[in-house]
Amino acid sequence: MRQLKQINAASWNALLLRLPQAHLLQTWEWGQSKRSTGWSPLFYVWGSESEPRAAAMLLLRQMRIFPGLQLKVLYCPKGPILDWKDENLVTEVLADLENLARKEKAIFIKIDPDLVLRKGVPGSEDEEINPVAKAIQSKLGNHGWIYSAEQIQFRNTILLNLERDEDEILAAMKQKTRYNIRLASRRGISIREAGLDDLPLLYQLYLTTAVRDDFVIRPEAYYLDIWQRLYQAGMARFLVAEYSGEAVAGLVMFYFGGVAHYFYGMSSEVQRALMPTYLLQWEAIRLAKKLGCHTYDFWGAPEVLDKSDSMWGVYRFKEGFNGRLVRHLGAWDYRNRPVLYQLYTHLLPKLLNLMRKRGKAANRERSLAV
Hints:
single chain; alpha+beta; nine-stranded mixed β-sheet; eight-stranded mixed β-sheet; 40% helix; globular
């Protein structure tokens, strides 16, 4: 394991693409975007840059709780990147990450591999269990890692196979979804690809959505930075749905390594009955195919498939496009400082609840200021 201190965006991303299942959240640009929220990206490789065996972009956060007491945490979003079937390599990578946590005196290190554990709806005939991921589960437990109570990324999502003709993809969708796509088009909804000048508009639509659906978003500067950063790197596209020249909905899509991710969706309070979000999704899927992507990731599904879940309505919308539900391995923590880890994980939920309340109040204030 070797830290790369002089590497740049092009060489790091090219290195990732030499490995299986390189993920957007491991890119140089994603790491740099996290600096504004207090994280520092660190880049590590196993093997050489030209012939890597594994790689990890780690985010380091330092927190000063009391004078003289500085705490560190390490997080590897959707990584590390490696061939998880290689048992010896997995053992080496885990050991090196554990040693890094000790070297940095971090409270813990969190990994969140983009490794599918199950495919299909639980209990259905088409459910499949990935034996490699099951073996990794056991290995992590045997090495002292624990399933994290703090799952930062969605563990479940819906993936749509794009390696088919457009007509075939459309025909496979649920009848109501196809109907709503055509309804939006018939009723005058038009879709255009947006540029950097449209980012403030997209944020305002996103803010409207957050207030309406009661979830927290960050200040405008955060989104404008990451959207622009990924767009300029050739990893983001923006779509806007309009009715009579007025923007009524929007969509932000990121893409890397052949996978397009529906990261942010937003809509206004007007013309929602015209189903603009359905046509937006269809045009995003078509755009992803044109960009050469083989998979469209709807980015998020409920942890439990039940109407009581806050994401149930969003899930019902996404499943209409007839992708496949997948469940990932999830985030796992290696506790380097167990006592501080217990304190951290006890206080964190209370802190997050307080931050959410403040964040929702800030959302409302920002929306009223527009």
